[in-house]
Amino acid sequence: MNKTKLGINEYLFVALIFVGALWGVTPMLGLILFAAVVEKSEVINAGSRMALIIKVGFLLVQSCFNFIEEIVRTFADDASGFYRVMNKIDYFLDAALLCTLIVFVIINGLKGFGANKPAVTYAAPQAAAPQNAAPAQAAAPQAAQTAAPAQAAAGVCPKCGKAVNPGTTFCAGCGTKIQ
């Protein structure tokens, strides 16, 4: 996982952008501007776009409801019931925005902390090289035939060396039939 100029990984930086969105538009835009100028990461760019879409979308919906409320206030003499409904809608929108941003903070935080763990890799067993060249040519096909089931049993494709799941019929990397 790539680290940012701040010393944290990309997903934690995206979580920081969503936390900035919780604080307000200015902190979020400051972090997005920093990422656009300093960081060259597709993960951070995608997270920035998602934060902008969520924040701007909620602000637009909230502005539409405020506009409707102002129109009713202008033309209605007594609209107290309408205002109560609009206040409940406004509180619901605020809660939905906060919950959405918190969920994205948690998701990216978990991705960021999980990215620090080393990946598990599978290495194909290597056959020992024969002493002389002539028997090596004759022994190579036989060694490949005996190594293939052993590699497949170990969870590795005998042709390309990629990890395969138990019970897999074909390798996802090269298409070789796994026995």
Give an overview of the whole structure.
The structure is a single chain. The chain has 179 residues and is mostly helical. The protein folds into two domains: 10-114, no CATH class; 132-179, no CATH class. It is 65% helix and 0% strand. The chain contains five helices and no strands. Helix 1 (10-23) runs parallel beside helix 3, helix 1 (10-23) packs antiparallel against helix 4 (80-114) and helix 2 (25-37) runs antiparallel to helix 3 (42-75). The mean pLDDT is 78.
Per DSSP, what share of the residues sits in E-state strands of 2 or more residues?
A: under 5%
Distance between the termini: 34 Å
Give the fraction of residues assigned to helices.
55-70%
What's the total number of strands? Answer: 0
Structural category is mainly alpha
State the assembly state of the protein chains. Answer: single chain
SSE string, helix = H, strand = E? HHHHH
